[in-house]
Protein: FAD dependent oxidoreductase domain-containing protein
Organism: Tilletia horrida
Amino acid sequence: MCRSFLIAGGGVFGASTAVHLKKRFPDASVRILERSPSTANTTVSPSPDAASSDLNKIIRADYADEAFRRLAVDAIAHWRTDERLRPFYHEVGLLLHSLPYSSSRRDELDAARKVAERGVAEAQAAADVEGSSNGSDLPAVAFLCNTDQHLQQAIPAPALASAGTALRAIAQDGSEDAEGAAYLNPRAGWAEAKEATSAMLAYAIELGVHVIYGAEVVELLTTTGEGDGQRLACGLKTADGTKQVLDEADEGAIFLCTGSWTPHLLQTLTRNEPALPPITAPPVVFSAQTVLLVEVSEDVALRHANIPVVLNYDTGFYCFEPRRVEGTDGVDRWLVKCAIHDRGYQAPTPPAPAGSKSLPCYPGFDAARPDESRERSVLASSSARKHVPAEHETRMLQALKAVWPEMVEHGTVHESRICWYAETTDENWLIDRHPSLPNLIVASGDSGHGFKFLPTIGELIIARLPAHVQAEPARPIPPLNEHWTRVFSWAHHEERFEAVRQKAQAAGSGTSVANNIEWKPDRDSASKVLKGEGPGLVGAEHDVSRGL
């Protein structure tokens, strides 16, 4: 059997898929089509504006959803032990906390404490899944933080000495104006996102995968199968007119691992195939999340070394320890990433990126235009894709100051960035065969929590290969269980998406599906949803669910 595979996209989903394909089919031809250009004297890496091309990503397993909890525990085991990925994983812990609440808001404080208690239970459940397989090498299990002693366990002394009001409120006993709730999960941390994804891509190349750069996919090529005469995907056409085709369509498959490009591509790749039914309700949508990089001095950075990742489960704000990064100018800088994880920004008509020969998928939003009346980093772009709304930058700096004041008082904004997500209505991923093309596999809908599964998600994706293509691999492909088969399915997401669309229309929210409705369910302890008001609202609504 002459198997060949094409993968559109070299990010987390695409790189992991390529590696797992070559592990199962060492003799197969596997090609990744990556739209970012290849430049001389640089290492292989994902597209600069991909979500995976980032400074840090959170790694954790304390999901309320038991199925995802088990999946995350397995992924973290790989982060700890895989020689290629282990150098990029920093298990410094994850501190989740609430806002400080005054005595007049006792009900909200009690609710926040219950969130923390459930979080500890979920983290301990993840620890139970881990068992004792790694023995004493594993960090301690999660615990509530509500005393000074707990904070001393959670935060290194140099950083704790200058901790902000948001953290100090955790250990208060009610004698102060406000107090909060929190818990620490020591079996969590962060990964160097771009470097880890690049390492996975490099591993794929080592296994024999061919990465084609500058390949912006604009059209899907199809043919008629030899057996039952069904239409099959047989290749991909790029913006420069090049066609990359499968050796034999009947014995191969094409994977669409295109992140936030996916909603657009699903509707346009088959535009020259009138025989195929149009996709009127793509089961994923894109959203723009805001990220800020703050540059701090080496002294400040060293005082905050090895601090846990901090996540406010009331607001969605989170931040990492300072990381030393070599700039394009050859100068080392200490950068702190902070962000607000929420529903993101959406717009019905995206702007076209410079030089693109096809319609883009990127959302544009007027509020993202830079405020020319104030100074900003010379490195910050004025494009909507690189500059966050001014009010969001202010919110992030205020939130960072409440956690680590020194980083703001003695730091400067280095860069603002938009992180592009592909979202589903319930944060289960879309991993399934196209309903009209059985050898086109769509893997998308990361919903902000796909990165941590970089070591393992490819195995889930290739499990969707048609049965005859899976036949006789070097190692059997584990099938998806009943739960994953259902919640990853096209039908599941299309049904949910259509229900959300109808609910939005009934609520009078026009074209913005995510407004005035509960777009995602509250399925995680660290999850609160604050609804926006009024039709046509543009902007972010907080949803700190299992994303991250």
